[in-house]
Amino acid sequence: MATRTQAREAVVGLLYAYACGNTGIMQNAPDMLLARKIKNKQQDFALGLLRGVIERFDSLGVVLEQYLKEWEFSRLGQMEKSILRLGAYEILYTQTDSPIIINEAIELAKMYGDDNAPKLINAVLDALSRAQKQKA
Q: Which molecular function term from Gene Ontology is one that the record holds (predicted)?
């Protein structure tokens, strides 16, 4: 049985494909997840995340731009953007604890981002999380 970590990893890959122009990814996502042995509750979890990020794709980029100190969101790599969008979506729209979300995003950045990605993703998502806590 797949874990939520594996589901998030698959979602980041699907978001990367979406960002690179595969706008019909939602139609193929269930089969792609099943091929990675992500099924049942974990597939529902993954599809919910994917759908939520895609529905708010541009607005998540705008939100994240506020927390980049010396970078523009448009200058980041697609993989880093995908990880950040997923993390931001979870922080803003799910009940999952922020430390879990941030840790998962850092681990994804270590696997798929460049050498500076884990530090950047940690800083941006932590700043977003702190801002959300202040609003609550």
A: RNA binding
